[in-house]
What does this fold into?
Amino acid sequence: MTGKILIIGASGQIGTELTLKLRELHGNDSVIASDIREGNEELMSSGPFEIADATDLSVIENIIEKHQVEEVYLMAAMLSATAEKHPMKAWNLNMDSLFHILNLAKEKKIKKVFWPSSIAVFGPTTPKENTPQTTIMEPTTVYGISKQTGERWCEYFHAKFGVDVRSLRYPGIISYKTLPGGGTTDYAIEIFHEALKSKTYTSFLAESTGLPMMYMDDAIKATIDLMDAPSENVKIRSSYNLSAISFTPKELAEEIKKHIPDFSIDYAPDFRQEIADSWPSDIDDSRARKDWNWKHQYDLSALTEKMLAGVSEAFEIS
Ligand code: NAD
It folds into this structure.
């Protein structure tokens, strides 16, 4: 690739690790990170960084011209739990930033776009088990409505203008390098911090709430595999179902107890329970597996081991 890669929202949970992986693959100077706030030390010191507001078209266009950017990963968004508190701000950020990038691709100022969707596109009327790629989608959250709308526009820009846009419906992403950004699956990260610090955790979701989840390394691999796939293999241009594992707070606590036997959990569901209840518990991602050979690597036990080791090292908890 001659042109460069731009990550918008690079300081966030997924953006940070995606940027670092792309820098490892393509060279530090070929991957431009940008966000409205600075990222962690590793992100800031490993390559170019631009402060930019994703809703400001001229700022984004200038960065693309200045660095001769060919590929954009648009990771900036307001996530599910935060979006319920700031509905219009979430809608404006999630939609305006996407339109800017799709229009720049339509004008051939960039060649390829990655934009993440989410399991939040599904709603209470969607089949909860083994949720198909194509099914009833009546999301009941601001975030879910914005992601579903985004998917429709991605498909439209591909069909009408030939825009090479690719997308995944990420499940809850579990990682330790940065803190999570205000989603409904954040409990599955907080639990590791609290298990190591105080050996006790109060879950904001009820014990039997099963949700689709994925370890960060698998999410990054899926993203890069999809972007590297030959265009003709990317048959879905709305967004691909993507899945790895599914577990409940109780099952995760049991797994943690194998390493920290005196760990205890209790449950105090809050407003996020209603959001979780509207989402599927596991997802059929056979299209991703068939079209571009998707395979996940981490199961619940591997994820737990990685998280306990990673959180204790990154946050110096022993
Ligand atoms: P995050 O909240 O950790 O990161 C988002 C980043 O966007 C932050 O660094 C924030 O500063 C930045 N940002 C916010 N407003 C901005 C603006 N106006 N201009 C530029 N940057 C701005 O989120 P994340 O978890 O890394 O999620 C990345 C993407 O993946 C989002 O689209 C999210 O909806 C999607 N997703 C995430 C998960 C998950 O579990 N983390 C699951 C499904 C989908």
Remarks:
- DSSP finds twelve helices and 14 strands in the chain.
